[in-house]
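Worked example 2:
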Amino acid sequence: MSEDGFMRLALEQARLSQRNGEVPVGAVVVCHGKVLATGRNAPIREHDPSAHAEIVALREAAQLLGNYRLEDCELYVTLEPCAMCCGAILHARLKRVVFGAADPKTGAAGSVLNLFREPRLNHQTAVLGGVLADDCGALLREFFRKRREHHRRNAHPLREDALRTPEERFSHLPGYNWAPHYLTDLPALNGLRLHFLDEGPRDAPRTWLCLHGNPAWSYLYRKMIPVFIAAGDRVVAPDLIGFGRSDKPKKEGFHGFLWHRQVLMELIERLDLCNVVLVVQDWGGILGLTVPMDMPGRFNGLLVMNTTLSTGEEPLSQGFLAWREMCANNPEYDVARLFLRGNPYLDAEEAAAYNAPFPDRGHRAALRAFPRLVPKGFDDEGAAVSRKARDFWSERWRGQTLMAIGQQDPVLGEPVMRALQRQLRGCAEPMLLPEAGHFVQEHGERIAHKACAFFGR
């Protein structure tokens, strides 16, 4: 059998060790061209720190030969041996060691040191490394990737009344490759896991706080975030509970206007966000516009896109009532199709990314709940705080305001935004986007460049 053939047998042993929860390393001892013994990692299972694949295989071979000297034998192992295993191999007087993947952290056959070429020792063993190195290394990398993911999940245990979208649904999304960040210990969360992006220097002179709406998530800001980062700024973009990578309570009744507002305020406090430009659209504004009045020292700018303040004093627009009716009659609507309808230039992968957080009906409770949470009457939850926010923006706001309007939006389009403009003290003439619909951020690169220049004044 060839060297590759013996290494494939060692890989089989490595896969067996992986099934037992061990680091996947396997070994075979070959004598005169025939397999004499096999071994696989077992320190966890055997409660034995010496139970590395190499030593397990050496023990079996020595028992079969009735001699601890293995002078006519070769050892094939999928990972470069550590110092402990090299010592055992030298003591057994093996004539050759063949390994697959190098170990740059603990490898003692050439990576960190080479015990087999130490002239002060009374025996030297021949070494050949790199046989099926790609296959051996890939098995180890996949093992440690899954273990890191498991540890991340266990660090934030899932509540029984919530669901968590599988992490693999967020792999390889176009234009969205930022590291996730999680919090579970905000008081309002009570153990739910909140996801947020946090990019750029923590001590940046300006922070953009980007709030999404329904049924979107932080993916919506993928075209704006790179522009803000390139300007040297910090960007924080949370996923509201029920959306994106955040946990998803199973019951629609869990969601409430004031509760979501409280979570946002606690997140801002926890991250100690200062010199903030608040970036809002849709529910990001319905909620987010009520926040700065209670922490005004943290905010000095507002970038507002198709949204509103729902005070309960004016009837909801016909466009919004039609949207609410559609959600009620079609609770399983296709999110990707919704985005394509208003943004036909999106490619299929981008549209599908908006579906990623919602693999089934159980994950969609927030999508069903949010249309009904918009305050309709004077005494509805959220209406009073929205009226206070309106007064803040019209009377006490001292920061800069930039408005961008997607003019194709049938729900929160130009008429609604012009009314909001009149409530925002010092709001400049809006940036009009005649080609944009409700999800204005799909044209976000242009808006972000304009915003960087505007708020840089």
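The chain has a mean pLDDT of 95. The radius of gyration is 30 Å.
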